[in-house]
Amino acid sequence: MSGQFAVSDPSGIPGRFVVFEGVEGCGKTTQLARLQDWLQTNGFIEAGQKQGILSSLVVTREPGGTILGQEIRRLLLHHAVDDEPMQFRTELLLYAADRAQHVEGFLKPHLNQGALILCDRYTDSTIAYQGYGRGLDRAVIDQLNHLATQGLTSDLTLWLDVDVEIGLARAQRRGRSDRMEQAQLAFHRRVQQGFVELAQQYPDRIVRIDASCDEQSVAQQIQAVLQQRLIEWYGSTSVGALPPNA
């Protein structure tokens, strides 16, 4: 494999960063795993490595994408509310701390090596949950996000859009719910509105996926969107190994 990766991004970072977003129970974690399998089984990663246009496929998440982040995730999602309620600003700062560690210690090193990264949640979740959901100041959140990311944004964000009630019902079927899932319905409605407005604000980066249909149909939508982006990023020759909407 060539040690030199093609750079088409003006930022000079050879890797690509794809994020999955959405309300609780939207299916993003399931669909991320399906996309990972689709890319690996159909030979795109191997072909890209041989051509020297990417180094690897990497899967991660927020919070919890690093060893330190796993401890922060435990605090954020499983802190016993009865012991001491977590203040909203505390919650925001913990997410920012997790992200700062994740960006510097994990995301940037892999992107600089030419990886294609699939990430379960990123900055848009903080705006939707802590901004729209908790009512914290958007300007403060934007400042914290910039401090934590040092300007690193996703190349593509797949927003899995599903009705809040449907998503929560799916989440409840998984069993024990985390601290976010236990929030009131009104909170989740505000979060959903946050994602709606973010998609309107950043139409080039955020692509809406109809996540109300069956799992296979959702996967096909995602594959179609990503296939087009892969052609833009890596060229049609590299993507030729991928069957359309398998």
TrEMBL record:
The keyword Nucleotide-binding applies. It comes from Thermocoleostomius sinensis A174. PANTHER family: THYMIDYLATE KINASE (PTHR10344), UMP-CMP KINASE 2, MITOCHONDRIAL (PTHR10344:SF4). Its EC number is 2.7.4.9. Pfam families: Thymidylate_kin (PF02223). PROSITE patterns: THYMIDYLATE_KINASE. GO terms for cellular component: cytosol. It is an enzyme of class 2 (transferase). Residues 20-222 form the Thymidylate kinase-like domain. ATP binds at residues 22-29. This is Thymidylate kinase. GO terms for biological process: dTDP biosynthetic process; dTTP biosynthetic process; dUDP biosynthetic process. One of its GO terms (molecular function) is dTMP kinase activity. SUPFAM superfamilies: P-loop containing nucleoside triphosphate hydrolases (SSF52540). It comes from the Bacteria. Phosphorylation of dTMP to form dTDP in both de novo and salvage pathways of dTTP synthesis. Belongs to the thymidylate kinase family. Keywords: ATP-binding, Kinase, Nucleotide biosynthesis, Nucleotide-binding, Transferase. It catalyses: dTMP + ATP = dTDP + ADP.
